[in-house]
Design brief:
By secondary structure, the chain is an alpha+beta fold. The chain contains 3 helices and 4 strands, in the order βαβαββα. The chain is globular, with a radius of gyration of 12 Å. It starts with a strand and ends with a helix.
Length: 81
């Protein structure tokens, strides 16, 4: 299992693309996805408004913006439980 926190904002086309990428990998890689809307909290909005989408992993690392599949696969392998 791999736990991912996915920071997003409605209406963000990069976030929609990132969600589709995760949906395609969810079963194969046993993903547990915690979705967090950045506009639900002022601090989150300030922190991530220029970086979304953001995938945050258990080891504290993250991917953001235009997330490449190859980088995501590497992070999934590194964060398997």
């Amino acid at each position: 299992m791999v736990n991912i926190t996915f920071y997003f904002k409605d209406g963000c086309w990069l976030c929609d693309h990132a969600q589709e990428m995760l949906n395609g990998l969810k079963v194969k890689h046993n993903l547990s996805i915690n979705k967090v809307a950045i506009d639900s909290d002022d601090d989150l909005y300030e922190m991530y408004r220029f970086d979304i989408p953001v995938f945050e992993f258990k080891d504290g690392s993250s991917l953001h913006g235009r997330i490449k599949r190859k980088e995501l696969y590497r992070k999934l392998e590194e964060n398997k439980e």
